[in-house]
Design goal:
Elements: H1 6-18, E1 36-40, E2 43-46, E3 51-54, H2 69-81, H3 91-103, E4 109-113, H4 116-131, E5 135-139, H5 173-177, E6 179-182, H6 187-197, E7 201-206, H7 220-232, E8 236-240, H8 253-257, E9 263-266, E10 277-281, H9 283-286, H10 305-318, H11 323-344, E11 350-354, E12 357-361, H12 378-390, E13 393-394, E14 403-404, H13 411-428
The protein binds pyridoxal-5'-phosphate.
Pyridoxal-5'-phosphate binds next to helix 4.
Length: about 425
């Protein structure tokens, strides 16, 4: 058990004085609100000197592990040579674009920005420009960033299910109205909506696995239906692979499922924690983002050598044989370990996920879309994680959030995690 959180508590109080709510990103305030001062590989260290095996991974980027020495040294090498010039493309930038085109099935061309939100914002804009239409479809439970068109219907309270659940004040009502929210994995509903409104829809955007609510696995027939009907109706299909890209394979989940979208957004694991995101897809659509196109795409810090060097190093490391096998094997160990432990203690639970992403819901039965997750026992979910944190295992204590394994995690880390989990589950039983 951990000793004290006193120093973390003091630092949180300081932060609260100067930063609204003590955080610069809405999802970062959790209870306990620890302050972390060091990270290395699979471990993070708080201000009181407690060490945690980290499965939060900063919401996903740290696929190689934190402060990866090879990534850091490639970044240092890059910035000893050049910083930001703001003219043309950097040599590393073109190398990186080439790698992405090689790996990601939908990528014929690629542009870089700094966050997943910028990528999804531009993807929707390109889709609207290309189709001359305004409306977009997203799915309940998927998160695509913080801009007006998509900042709605992620972890929606049961009483607001089926309605618009806008997560911010100050959004433009017309933009919100132009987004339709549908049920994930529901072929029948999607078909009905496309039959009625297909001619008004510019884009369909989805996380191919909705990881912002843990891991709801897509039905192949659903993804196939999205592809077929978007093609038949001239709608741009966007896979938001900000979480799945580079985490599940170098080609993203589209390489797993064999369904190729028109546009893909990527971020997070693309640069192992350095700020970089990308929008890629069919050349004809991406060309609209160039200076000869009609969609304005710009940014002072776009393709900054720091993010680009980190991404090149990350992808080169991920290309080495055996890495995804390691991630998938440890993910499977965690899921099967949690399944047998919850079974042993008679706890209603479902351990699921994909590859290196895992989550244990405190519920049983089918999990095909967000509305099924209303049955999850949120109190037990969060309680389990708080108890794990107190045993040195960091899983963010927020309902439905996923965990991530990195290449730095070992079998010993999984053993230690399952041992702590057994202790917690025995007490919960
Ligand atoms: C699937 C998905 N898309 C887009 C975003 C937005 O990315 P960012 O936070 O880098 O703006 C996120 C962030 O969590 C995400 O999970």
């Amino acid at each position: 058990m951990l000793q004290t959180n006193e120093r973390s508590r003091q630092l949180t109080e300081d932060a609260l004085r100067y930063i609204p709510g003590g955080v610069s990103s809405a999802n970062r305030r959790v209870d306990p609100n620890l302050t972390f001062v060091r990270a290395a590989g699979a471990y993070i260290y708080d201000a009181d000197g407690n060490r945690y095996i980290d499965y939060h991974a900063a919401f996903g980027p740290a696929i190689l592990g934190h402060c990866h020495p090879e990534v850091n040294s490639r970044v240092i090498e890059a910035i000893q040579n050049i910083d930001l010039i703001g003219v043309g493309a950097g040599d590393l930038e073109t190398q990186l674009a080439k790698k992405i085109v090689e790996h990601v099935p939908s990528a014929e061309k690629v542009v870089f920005c700094n966050s997943g939100s910028e990528a999804t914002y531009s993807a929707l804009r390109v889709a609207r420009a290309a189709t001359g239409r305004r409306k977009v479809i997203k799915f309940q439970g998927c998160y695509h960033g913080w801009h007006d068109a998509v900042i709605m219907n992620v972890i929606t309270p049961a009483k607001r299910l089926g309605q618009k659940d806008v997560l911010t004040a100050g959004a433009t009502p017309e933009v919100i109205d132009d987004t339709l929210v549908l049920r994930f994995n529901d072929v029948e509903e999607f078909t009905r909506v496309i039959e009625a409104h297909g001619a008004d829809i510019a884009a369909v955007i989805l996380e191919p696995i909705p990881h912002n609510i843990g891991a709801v696995l897509p039905h192949q027939e659903f993804l196939r239906c999205l592809r077929d009907l978007t093609l038949a109706n001239g709608i741009v299909l966007i896979f938001d692979e900000v979480v799945t890209g580079f985490r599940h394979t170098l080609g993203g989940y589209q390489a797993v499922t064999g369904i190729t979208p028109d546009l893909t957004t990527m971020g997070k694991a693309i640069a192992n924690g350095f700020p970089l995101a990308a929008l890629c897809g069919r050349a004809e659509l991406l060309d609209r983002c160039g200076p000869d196109g009609d969609v304005f795409f710009a940014g002072t810090f776009n393709a900054h050598p720091v993010g680009v060097a980190a991404s090149l190093a990350t992808i080169e490391l991920l290309e080495q044989p055996g890495n995804y096998e390691h991630l998938f094997r440890l993910g499977e160990r965690m899921r099967s370990g949690m399944t047998s432990l919850t079974g042993k203690y008679g706890i209603e639970a479902t351990a699921t996920g994909f590859g290196s992403v895992f989550v244990t819901y405190f519920m049983t039965g089918a999990i095909d879309s967000y509305d099924d997750l209303i049955r999850n026992n949120a109190a037990a979910f969060v309680h389990f994680r708080r108890e794990m944190i107190s045993r040195g295992i960091y899983m963010i204590p927020v309902n439905l959030k996923r965990n991530h394994i990195s290449l730095s995690h070992t079998d010993d880390d999984i053993d230690a995690t399952l041992e702590a989990a057994e202790d917690v589950l025995r007490l919960m039983a």
